[in-house]
Amino acid sequence: MIMLDLSIFLAGACGALVEEILKDNCIVFPKIISGKLLLGTFGGLLVGGIAGMIIDGSMVTAFMGGFMGKAVIMRLMDGNFGDLKTIFKNTNQTGLNIRISDEKSPAKAPE
User: Could you tell me where the DSSP H helices lie in 1-111?
Assistant: First the structure.
């Protein structure tokens, strides 16, 4: 059981590592600046591993959770959901049946 948990954590961490390399095209090592510890890529690996373990226990979803975990957590902390609504609206235009309702105009029930 410990080996399975460790492998799920590592899959999430690998997803975070791939995301970090694709985003910045480099790996940032931890450093101390003005008395503050900046975790760099290590922080992303930690968050990605935890996100991978939270999802559902599959290696593929753990990898994807690690890949997207940091971005989702940062958006939740900032309270910025505008980009997520745009993604869902664009997905709806590609043929998927997704409904998004605003407080101003509530969604109508299908007839």
Answer: 2-24, 41-55, 59-78, 82-93
User: Does the residue 103 lie in any domain?
Assistant: no
Tokens 């975790």, residue located: 39
Say whether pTM exceeds 0.70.
no
- Asked whether the beta carbons of 48 and 15 are under 8 A apart, the reply is yes
Q: Is residue 108 part of a domain?
A: no
Instruction: Give the structural domain span for 50.
Output: 2-93
User: Structural domain tally of the chain?
Assistant: 1
The answer as to whether 10 is a domain residue is yes
Give residue-wise pLDDT tens across range 14-51. Answer: 999 998 898 888 888 999 999 999 888 888 899 889 88
